[in-house]
Amino acid sequence: MFTEPWMQRALLAALFLAPLCALLGVFVTARRMAFFSDTISHAGLMGVALGAWMGFADLTLPLILVSLAVAAAIFWLKENTELVTDTIMALLLSGSVAVGIIILSLMKTRPGDLHGFLFGDILAVGRGEVWQCIALSLIVGVGIFWKLSELSLITAQEEMAQVCGVPVRRLNYLFVLVLTLTVALAIRLLGIILVTSLLVIPPAAARNLSRNLRQQILLSLAVGLVGGVGGVLLSYRLNVPCGATIVLTCITIFTATLLWSRVRLGRAAALHGASPP
Predict the structure, then answer these.
(1) Where are the domains of the chain?
(2) pTM (2 decimals)?
(3) 5-193 adopts what CATH topology?
(4) pLDDT at residue 228 is higher than 50
(5) DSSP assignment of 214-268, as one string?
(6) What does the alpha-carbon distance between residue 1 and residue 141 come to, in Å, rounded to a whole number?
């Protein structure tokens, strides 16, 4: 299994990209941006359709460009209209998906790797995509830990961060840029339909056990790593779709952490009740 080049590439992609999504997911969930990442991922369908229609050999580039354009449109509409954020994202999500479907329906032949973009096909990632995952993971990981204090303050209290002199606007735009690039690359791992799960489930599992932000970051990284690599290995053993297996592996870990947290709370409550007043 480990001697196959395609399996080695899949494991490397999961090894770097899954923890990266889990790390970003801590801030995504804390800032209630899960719907934002879902909008960006679904906009990727329009990027794939446009890329295929324009004859791109590699559909990753148009996918990333369209995802960045949709992210920019969200910010522009938020700053220049009175629409609430959820309405803007729902509008762009449904519109981009509709455009993608129409373009694909008008094409005589559909791209052969469309199924991989929709449902994930990490076993088909190329060497170039693996290097992209490694580079993005290292750069983003170092950047987040370098600016961890500022990002934590922005996440907890954005107005206080502005008072303290933190460049809130610049860091927000940079975070959205990194999140968009990560989602676009993670589509190869899980697909457009499932990619948000890797941003949401590991931080949720970590939250069941953590007592502060640093613990949640470390536990989320661990859950993302185990879920990503473990899902790839299980999918190979069971001969089932890889993206769905990764998601179910993460959900299994989440369930285990939830049960453990309930047991721990139950023991604490029993001890508190038995202690003298």
Answers:
(1) 5-193
(2) 0.85
(3) ABC transporter involved in vitamin B12 uptake, BtuC (1.10.3470)
(4) yes
(5) HHHHHHHHHHHHHHHHHHHHHHHHHT--HHHHHHHHHHHHHHHHHHHHHHHHHHH
(6) 29
